[in-house]
Amino acid sequence: MTQDLSQAIFVAGHRGMVGSAIVRCLKALGHQNLLTASREELDLLDQNAVRRYFLANRIDQVYLAAARVGGIHANNTYPADFIYENLMVEANIIQASHAAGVQKLLFLGSSCIYPKHAEQPMKEEALLTGPLEPTNEPYAIAKIAGIKLCESYNRQHGRDYRSVMPTNLYGQNDNFHPENSHVIPAMMRRFHEAKLANLSEVVVWGSGKPMREFLHVDDMAAASVHVMELEDMVYRKNTQPMLSHVNVGTGVDCTIRELAETMKRVVGFEGELVFDANKPDGAPRKLMDVSRLESLGWKATISLDNGLQRTYQWFLQNYGLLRG
């Protein structure tokens, strides 16, 4: 893997969990010419504004980490927002990148692109082979469209636009909103506040039986940079022109009950766990097949236990600033 540290790199979504981790990773590698823009400086939903930004800046690479994200509750409550905003952001950035002559782009998708009952672990080939999980179908369709945008610009215009599909991510700068967040931040906040209130129990949504895979965001950032910087011939050898996305994960999963038990220990909550089976479980299992990524020379290094401890330390330092 070779890197030109002088290249201008635009990280879309640099304030989010994944985008901020990519910025940290690039800086640690010695990249100095990083371009970022806040929502106040650049509205990614505004096609003309995005086009002007790209034409005004000489950009060599783009990490497309900007997205509207959330857990089951948020996806169920705001389906129109999730599909519209994600479609617009990815289309605006990919088209503007092409129009401005940007040859290399990395699009960050999601494991929810795969069918609800896809064979486990989920291979890249499972895309579009069955119905999606209904609770996040609009978001998943937007992410599938992002993959196909990249593939289409590659086929028609000879671009080198790649896609990585992360499993469930967590870490610093996550959204810890009590209702609109993903399972790990929601659970961490619930356990922490139950500990502060000296409650006797914590209620966990669902039966606790679904199995999930979790990847620390710093591992995700490292994988993203690795895939972006692979030589074109190496990348193409391990992918296919019509199937260009790569799964990113640990290849290891656990039940939600096991996650809750680990979280209880990390946070130091001494009460009981209660599972509310009336709440939706989502897909029964979501485990990524990461053999393609490993063949490209990358493997996750942060264990779930270690990652949760690191995340909880960040959470404690920033608890007073969290939303909601």
Describe the structure using short key phrases.
324 residues; alpha/beta; Rossmann fold; 6-stranded parallel sheet; 15% strand; NADP; multifunctional enzyme
Protein model, in words:
- With 324 residues, the protein is an alpha/beta fold.
- The chain has a domain at 9-175 and 213-252 and 286-303: NAD(P)-binding Rossmann-like Domain (Rossmann fold).
- Helix content is 42%, strand content 15%.
- The strands form four sheets. It has a six-stranded parallel sheet with strand order 2-1-3-4-5-10, with helices on both faces.
- Helix 4 (79-99) runs parallel beside helix 5 (137-157), helix 6 (183-196) packs across helix 9 and helix 9 (256-267) packs across helix 11 (304-318).
- The longest helix is centred in the N-terminal third of the chain and has 21 residues, at 79-99.
- The mean pLDDT is 92.
- Substrate binds at residues 190, 205, 212, 281.
- Keywords: Isomerase, Multifunctional enzyme, NADP, Oxidoreductase.
- Belongs to the NAD(P)-dependent epimerase/dehydratase family. Fucose synthase subfamily.
